[in-house]
Design brief:
This protein has 279 residues and is mainly alpha-helical. It has helices spanning 34-62, 67-92, 98-103, 117-132, 138-146, 153-158, 184-187, 197-209, 215-233, 243-258, 260-264; strands at residues 2-8, 15-20, 26-31, 105-109, 160-164.
Length: 279
């Protein structure tokens, strides 16, 4: 699957994108606009400069009489702040830095998956070019403004994009999943702890929008999503539970564990998606 631009939303500079299946079914994703990207970057830069200032003061006190020691230690500290700050935070916080968290943004791979250490490292390496390539910072801003998915050079190198965080922004209508009749007890055996917000968002979109797929294609996608989810949460569905039914039960458990505000945007109506019969 890949993510493509869909349209500009209200002329605001924000782009509505989607994870597009080979059958051209779009699963909603909204990319971050250039204004929020730049502001988040400035917030992170201010934090990094503050860290460097503190480091400089501490090193000055420690190596007061050793000028070469101060220079060496400060060079190492600068390297760690420039690279360690984004790599550490984006790996630890699943695509977020303090600046992104403040603006409600998150970096993900182009297929919607959480970024890993390798992706964060490539983004940080590209970020140095974005900021230092003359005329200093303007290059990164131009990439964000002019590329279809508002990707700076680091994103293009790493194969990532920045989206509005699904934890804070839900653009699809509220929907409350419920286990199919007779499977309520089975659903309680599913532990949704390991399900990520990204997984929930993609599977939820599939269950609510997948009716446009042909039955065979829908079954293929359901089986793929179910296998990936089962592997992640270490759960083996019984043979009598069809893949799509398992997904519905898992989404119901996720919503009940995390609450309607985080799971489905404070739903006000009850709804049950269509699902195939049990086999």
């Amino acid at each position: 699957m890949s993510v493509v631009e869909v349209q500009d939303v209200g002329g605001t500079g924000r782009t509505a994108g989607g994870i597009v299946t080979p059958e051209a079914v779009v699963l909603d994703v909204e990319t971050a606009g250039y204004a929020s990207r730049i502001l988040a970057g400035l917030l992170d830069l201010l934090i990094q400069l503050a860290l460097l200032f503190v480091v400089a003061v501490v090193l000055g006190l420690i190596f007061f009489a050793d000028e070469s020691g101060v220079v060496t230690a400060f060079a190492i500290a600068t390297f760690l702040v420039i690279f360690g700050y984004p790599i550490g935070f984006e790996t630890w916080l699943r695509g977020r830095t303090p600046g992104k968290m403040a603006l409600g943004l998150r970096a993900v791979t182009n297929d919607g998956a959480p970024i890993r250490l390798r992706d964060a490292t490539l983004r940080a390496m590209g970020g140095v070019v974005d900021r230092l390539l003359p005329p200093g910072g303007v290059t990164g801003a131009l990439f964000v403004m002019l590329t279809p998915r508002h990707q700076r050079l680091g994103d293009l190198i790493a194969g990532t994009m920045v989206i509005r965080d699904p934890e804070k922004f839900v653009t699809t209508p509220a929907l409350w999943f419920s286990p199919p009749p007779g499977l309520e007890q089975y659903a309680t055996t599913i532990d949704p702890t390991a399900i990520t917000v990204e997984q929930y968002t993609v599977i939820r979109s599939f269950l609510t929008r997948g009716t446009s797929l042909s039955p065979s294609v829908r079954a293929t996608f359901a089986r793929d999503f179910a296998n990936r989810l089962a592997e992640r949460i270490h759960h083996k569905p019984p043979q009598f539970v069809a893949p799509e039914v398992f997904l519905i039960c898992a989404m119901a458990r996720y919503q009940r564990r995390n609450g309607p505000g985080r799971a489905a945007g404070a739903p006000t109506t009850m709804a049950r998606p269509q699902y195939p019969g049990m086999r």
